[in-house]
Amino acid sequence: MRTIAALALGATGIGTAIYAGMPPERFRGDTAAIVLFVGDVGAQCGQKPPYRMLACHRRIKGTSYIVLPNPCPFGDDGEYFARLACHEAAHAQGWTGMHEP
Question: Fewest CB within 10 angstroms: 46, 58, 75, 92, which?
Answer without folding.
Answer: 75
